[in-house]
Design goal:
globular, two-stranded antiparallel ribbon
């Protein structure tokens, strides 16, 4: 896994292994309903904002999200597309179920421009407005975590991101050593 929210890919892998062991043993039920939009079909993931141990039920799997709601919190890719998606969910309902984890398709339909979003809207199923705005909760938690991480941790995260490469470069640029 990639680093997320100040936690390394290794920390996220440990949490995922713990979840799989809990699901396999039957001590924890697999996510079956998206807590953001209410969808019950398709890919439903367990999402956490905190990957530090010890792992606990209700914290390590704090948010059960359908693939679309899980991916929309990729908040740095296209804020306008993310906000458009979140507004539709907050108004009530959900988009067509996703049965395969395909971020490229999700991004093309929801993040890459209003003309493609119109096509995604054709699969929108209106429903009751959610009782809690989970996607806003996740952003609030992420902001608090972001404010609490150290500068050195932030620099490590930045160094691991693909966007440290200059536009048109064939290979990622090495960042200058810091003194």
């Amino acid at each position: 896994m990639k680093p997320y929210n100040g936690f390394s890919g290794e920390a996220r892998d440990r949490a995922q292994r713990w979840l799989r062991a809990e699901w396999t043993s039957g001590r924890l039920a697999r996510p079956s309903v998206c807590c953001a939009c209410g969808r019950e079909k398709g890919v439903i993931d367990a999402h956490a904002e905190d990957y530090s141990g010890p792992f606990r039920v209700g914290e390590t799997d704090e948010y059960h999200l359908c693939f679309n709601c899980h991916m929309v919190h990729c908040r740095f890719r296209n804020r306008e597309g993310r906000d458009r998606y979140r507004a539709a969910i907050a108004a009530g309902g959900h988009f067509a179920a996703t049965f395969k984890r395909d971020f490229g398709r999700f991004a093309a339909e929801h993040l890459d421009g209003p003309e493609r979003y119109e096509r995604a809207l054709q699969g929108f199923v209106p429903g009751p407005a959610p009782t809690r705005l989970v996607l806003d909760e996740i952003d609030g938690h992420a902001l608090a975590t972001f404010r609490s991480i150290t500068i050195s941790t932030m620099l490590k995260i930045i160094d691991q991101r693909p966007w440290t490469a200059a536009v048109g470069d064939q290979k990622p640029r090495k960042r200058a050593a810091r003194s």
